Amino acid sequence: MHTVLQWKPDFRTKLFMTLVLSYTLLLGNVQQKYLGVAIAASLLPYLLLLHEKRYAEAIKGTIMILAASIIQKYFLYHATGMLASLFLFIAMLALRMLPGLMMGKYTLISTDMSDLVYSLKKMKTPDEIVIPITVMARFFYTVREDYSQIKDAMYLHGLTTRRLILNPIKLFEFRTVPLLMCLTHTADEVGVSALTRGMEVGSGRSSISTAKFKGVDAIFFLLMFLLIGFYIRGKYA
Q: Are the C-beta atoms of residues 118 and 64 closer than 8 Å to each other?
């Protein structure tokens, strides 16, 4: 169990990987000159999602990346017609935008709130930024849970979306109105929770987080610097 936890990168490492993957792959220089490197970098977020037991997302994403790579390699300069151009455009979007988005998603789902706050503090992030981020994260998580409970309650009463799709007023009344009422209470509760946890601007705060840089972080940093090197070489060589 300890070995598995050690394999998990620090939040600062994941944030750096998100920025590097998003920037280097978005411009397309790496894909055009070093397609193999681009494929390996694009598959990295899905490998991490696989470690988080997100098997369906990892498998679907891997298949999409490989299919997009094949389309770009063999049809980039031979696409004719509207349909072929559309598939090529989708493939390029998948190779350029999807890895950064999935790395960002992995960063969010694999980071505990205590680790997030502790890492931001270590990065000398001002309290004016740390506190809103923490409150917003807890707020949206609670909203998602409330919305799920509202949907379950509607389902138990037979008020499914399929039955109410032709009656949007009732759909709004039974789903949106209860959610809005929950939001007012949730906002107050999250604000009080932040105060009880000692999150005030300019005040010191202890943390139970043990987040720190490990060997796996050094490996990921090295991989990202290699990717930056390929990007620079592909752009200026």
A: no
With a cut of 60, say whether residue 75 has pLDDT above it. yes
Residue 183 CA to its chain's centroid (Å): 24
Unique residue bearing structure tokens 């752009």: 235
CA separation for the pair 203, 172 (Å, rounded): 43
Taking the C-alpha atoms of residue 15 and residue 20, their distance in angstroms, rounded to an integer, is 9
Q: Give me the phi and psi of 190, to 5 degrees please.
A: -65, -40
Produce one character per residue of 154-182: b if its CB has 16 or more CB atoms within 10 Å, e if not: beeeebeeeebeeeeeebeebbeebeeeb
Model confidence pLDDT, tens digit, residues 176-220:
888 888 888 777 777 666 666 656 666 666 666 677 788 889 999
Helix and strand totals (H; E) in the chain = 13, 0
Instruction: Label each residue of 148-179 as H, E or C.
Output: HHHHHHHHHCCCCHHHHCCCHHHHHHHHHHHH
Total Cβ atoms within 10 A of residue 84: 13
The answer to pTM > 0.85 is no
